[in-house]
Specification:
This protein has 426 residues and is of the alpha/beta class. It is 39% helix and 23% strand. It folds into two domains: 2-226, Acetylglutamate kinase-like (Carbamate kinase), CATH 3.40.1160.10; 305-421, VC0802-like, CATH 3.30.2130. β1 (2-6), α1 and β2 (32-36) form a beta-alpha-beta unit. The longest helix has 22 residues, at 58-79. Bound molecules: aspartic acid and magnesium ion.
């Protein structure tokens, strides 16, 4: 069994949906589980819909729902002339959405967000599944909310692995029991609580869904189909001399995605590494090209890669009472970091101070600094960039630092991380 994941860009219009069907056709003989994200920018639109619902802005809400419908029906109309079959499948989904939007809201925004935003993936998979059927590709549509079970930490559900594995195994096996079934089609990004409420796994979470399914099924491989040829060694927005990495290790891919490469959702790799399932990143424009493979084997040619994580803030904390930084101070500091949801990307301690480089999210950072200011002197520096270089050399360091001031540096044999002032200029 293999797992394929198609992101929103791959199905953004009728040509895209046709292209996905063409790729799938090539694999019609093997048992294939296909994970699909919401079409194009649908999730953003549904986020706006959720806000209007939450703020009781009925008129704007209706307009946005109309836009959502138009986006989907225009793809359907362009796909097939006589499309009653496909439209007939979408219509009850839109009805359910309208009922959901007419239901009085609770006092939990994140709960409402997941209840509404999850419709994006339900719509896209319903459309693609019906289109494949119309081409004669028998497939089964499975509701990921009934397979992947998470807690009720809405917008960032935490997976219940035991329940999810057993659901996924059973429902996918049952689907392929019928030999005429070529594909199982299911949604990325969404899951459900044990009580049946909708949950999402965090923005761009469809890669992670593919990994959860592959882990559960002990799949042969996962392929993420993208609009780029594979994983690149740097961001082409900043560098003109980027190269595609043919193969990289799980460890390298985890580090790159965690520290800012946006190509794969950072949570994706760990479950795959655990079961030694290779991950292919391939271009949906050029499906027969090799792409990148991420696996446990260490490639022979270690191409340097470098990524930036922008919008960081470096916070340095000094005890006011002239004491050294010890476990007692750190434990107090970490309590504050944890309760204010700061995301630490790098930390360093000296005898007299403790420094952290965190994502500069104002609503988290400001209250944290205020809380720290009680017992500590706090200094901070914003407009900071965190640079991560794998397989570094002095040449690359010079190239990415651009003479900027380096505040903090951490080094292992393979990875160098630098906290620098200002942002890289192209
Ligand atoms: N549709 C969701 C998003 O746009 C999930 C994904 O694309 O992976 O965030
Ligand atoms: Mg997306």
């Amino acid at each position: 069994m293999k797992v394929f994941k198609f992101g929103g860009a791959s199905v953004k219009d009728a040509a895209g949906v046709r292209n996905v069907a063409r790729i799938l056709e090539k694999f019609a003989g093997s048992q294939l589980v296909v994970v699909i994200s919401a079409i194009g920018k649908t999730t953003n639109l549904l986020e706006e819909i959720t806000l209007r619902y939450w703020n009781d802005q009925g008129t704007e809400l209706a307009e946005l729902v109309k836009k959502l419908k138009d986006n989907h029906y225009s793809i359907v109309n362009e796909l097939v002339e006589n499309n009653d079959e496909i439209s007939g499948k979408l219509q009850p989904v839109f009805e359910k959405l309208e009922i959901a939007l007419a239901t009085p809201k609770s006092d939990n925004f994140d709960f409402e967000y997941d209840r509404i935003v999850s419709f994006g993936e339900i719509l896209s998979t319903t459309l693609v599944s019906a289109f494949l059927n119309s081409l004669g590709h028998n497939n089964i549509w499975l509701d990921a909310r009934k397979m992947i079970i998470t807690d009720d930490n809405y917008r960032e559900g935490k997976v219940n692995w035991e329940k999810s594995v057993s659901n996924v195994k059973k429902q996918v096996a049952d689907s392929f029991n019928d030999n005429s079934v070529q594909f199982v089609i299911t949604q990325g990004f969404i899951s459900g609580t044990a009580n049946g409420d909708s949950v999402t796994l965090g923005r761009e979470g469809s890669d992670y869904s593919a990994a959860i399914l592959a882990y559960s099924l002990e799949a042969e491989s996962v392929t993420i189909w993208k609009d780029v040829p594979g994983v690149l060694n740097a961001d082409p927005k900043f560098f003109s001399d980027v190269v595609k990495l043919d193969e990289i290790s799980y460890e390298e891919a985890i580090e790159l995605s965690y520290y800012g490469a946006t190509i794969i959702h950072p949570k994706t790799l760990k479950p795959l590494q655990n079961k030694n399932i290779p991950l292919f990143v391939k271009s949906f424009y050029d499906p027969s090209s090799s792409g990148t493979v991420i696996s446990s084997s260490i490639p022979k040619n270690l191409v340097p890669s470098y990524i930036f994580k922008r919008n960081q803030i470096l916070i340095t904390i000094f005890p006011k009472d002239f004491s050294f930084i010890g476990v007692d101070n750190l434990s107090e500091i970490f309590d504050i970091i944890f309760s204010n949801k700061l995301k630490i990307n790098i930390m360093q301690s000296t005898a007299l101070s403790f420094s952290i480089c965190v994502d500069n999210v104002e609503e988290h950072v400001k209250p944290a600094i205020d809380a720290l200011a009680g017992n500590y002197k706090v200094k901070y520096n914003d407009e900071i960039e965190l640079i991560t270089i794998r397989h570094y050399s002095q040449n690359i360091i010079d190239k990415v630092v651009q003479g900027r001031k380096i505040y903090l540096e951490q080094k292992s044999r393979t990875t160098l991380q630098l906290v620098v002032k200002g942002f890289f200029k192209r």
